[in-house]
Amino acid sequence: MARNPFRPTAGATPPQLVGRHDIVEELTESLEDGPGAPGLLSLFTGPRGIGKTVMLTEAGDAALRQGWVTLSETATPGMVMRLSHATTRALEDVDPSAAPRRSITGLTLPVVGGGITVSAPPSTVVDWRYDLGRLLDPLEARGSGLLITVDEVHSAARDDLRDLAATVQHLVREGRTIALAMAGLPSSVSDLLNDDVLTFLRRATRFHLDDVPLDHVADALRETVIANGRTIDDDALAEAASATGGYPFMIQLVGYHVWRKATGDRITFAAARAGVPAAQKRLGSLVHETALADLSGVDRTYLLAMAHDEAESSTGEIARRLGVTPYYASTYRARLIAAGVVVPTRHGFVDFAVPYLREYLREHGARYEMAGRRTDGSS
Fold first, then answer.
1. Rounded to whole angstroms, what are the CA distances from 58 to 23, 84, 181, 337, 351?
2. Which of 3, 198, 226, 244 is deepest in the core (most CB within 10 A)?
């Protein structure tokens, strides 16, 4: 039996990158153009499951194809120290004779992200900048450069992000061939860009990732299925593509479960109809539950009020349902937009940013209503 080609795991590279080729092309051209090219400083934003981590991977792959070195990290405390040690290891690979010998000066527990968080003296950032220059010397001599990617940017790592931004800014001013690509939820990115010390990042090319057109989804699903030894009926393909809503993570979930429900080498409409509900259920536990957990009780109450509508919601009607003034309700509307949970559709109207969140809230509304009452003072 052919192995399931779809990858419904957070951050996993899908079998096909759907609807993002223009972005990859822009990044690739910036790498080719070198210092001063706009794509060498990039920020990817969007709701959970929209493909931000995948885009960082694509940026890294594009850099590697051009002979660049890539350092990849997640924005958790200790990030700069980890990048410093990664720079030393990269320098040993590129130019062993130039690599300094370093020792760890201290350890801070608990462990962050399954690794070691290293505390360093204030000179560490200066040392790291110096080592980056030593790494860039041989890279630039051979016509390449260095890309740093940082995922899940968040205010919890604000100090590290300030050090990172300051270091990259200095190197950019020196005309070094360095690129920085970062990704995070819209609210986290906006919070960081409002930091007076991180103004350098406001110059970044910002890519807000949206849903993928359904015709592109259908093409990608069909091509993936055929490339892996099966066929898919036209009505099954239409059902599967429509069920994704153009949401990249849902493309993988639907593809995975429709593939599982098929027998033999043909995916029928019956297999698609059986696979879609399984994908929707999995989306709830992987995406909706996590997104709602990060919100305050009042934020969730606003979403529950939206869930009564079949499509877009009037912000004035939401305020009436909540029994509050439109001004009061607008505060939470703005926070939910910044968090990537809802999107404005036209003046005075909003809708859910993630597919099937409405249905999930209807099914689990009682639980979130109770949680809202327990955290009634949340803001």
1. 10, 23, 11, 27, 30
2. 244
